[in-house]
Amino acid sequence: MCQLLGMNCNVPTDICFSFEGFRARGGKTDEHRDGWGIAFFEGLGCRLFVDAVPAIASPIADLVRHYPIRSTNVIAHIRKATQGQIVLENCHPFRREMWGRYWVFAHNGDLREFYPSNAGHKPVGGTDSERAFCLILDTLCQQFPSGKPPLPELYGALETITTAIAHHGIFNYLLSDGEHLFSHCSTQLSYIVRQAPFAPAHLIDQDLTVDFQELTRPTDRVAVIATIPLTDNETWTPMQPGQLLVFQDGSPLSSCQLAKLTANSPHKVSSQTLQNRNT
């Protein structure tokens, strides 16, 4: 199946190092040769690059690899097709508008007998992944017609629809509106939070090391989420099956932190690394 890569930061950061290793899995060190894509949020804007050729052979991937686009939220995907042809419209991430913001979604898995009746958001391609994305957006729009709700309410609604969709099969995904990054683990996802004191990191898929101490400030914080850890000299945290995390400012939030959101700041809280909400 496919592989996912996400990044959430407290300051705009480039993903060149992680993408170097991730891209190699798209036809060099792994078998995900059926297309790829990456989305970068910049304010209310969103750059989206997709290609139906293997990431390792894509000229567009060469551009991304050498172009240090800085973003606080990034979602990338390399595809091994289970449903839908190998064509551009089936390449992840998918992007739609909701509540006056872009939303981006990428999925790893396989949803069987999954053909929801989408109302407002219609799939363009033929994948189960895009159908799931459209159902998520339709459900949220119906539940919150006035606009984006406070984060705890949004999280609860997203958790409910995620659980329902996951009954159809494997449903690992990344979802972001440029403000938060949601990550759901059905079978396999891990994350790492890089913060001071920073240290060197070495890629698994390429013989490349970067010393983040030379590239960062003491206040920087970056969370990277991947299907399989990208480095072999850092400690990654595996997500648990059924776990839904929301990342903000480079850290995952817990249900306890979400519950403490104040009325004066309904969409934003101070980030910190927190415990698995399912324990």
SSE blueprint and pairings:
Layout: E1 3-13, H1 16-24, E2 36-42, E3 45-51, H2 59-66, E4 71-78, E5 94-98, E6 101-111, H3 128-143, H4 151-166, E7 169-176, E8 181-184, E9 190-195, E10 200-202, E11 209-211, E12 221-226, E13 237-238, E14 244-248, E15 251-253, H5 255-259
List the defining traits of the structure above.
single chain, about 280 residues, alpha+beta, Glutamine Phosphoribosylpyrophosphate, subunit 1, domain 1, seven-stranded antiparallel beta sheet, six-stranded antiparallel beta sheet, 5 helices, 15 strands, about 20% helix
- The CATH H-level homologous superfamily: Aminohydrolase, N-terminal nucleophile (Ntn) domain
Strand neighbour order, sheet with most strands: 3-2-4-1-12-9-13
Poorly predicted ranges (pLDDT <50, ≥5 residues)?
262-279
Radius of gyration: 18 Å
Backbone shape: globular
Straight-line N-to-C gap: 28 Å
Largest sheet: 7 strands, antiparallel
Number of domains: 1
- The number of distinct helices, counting runs of at least 4 residues, comes to 5
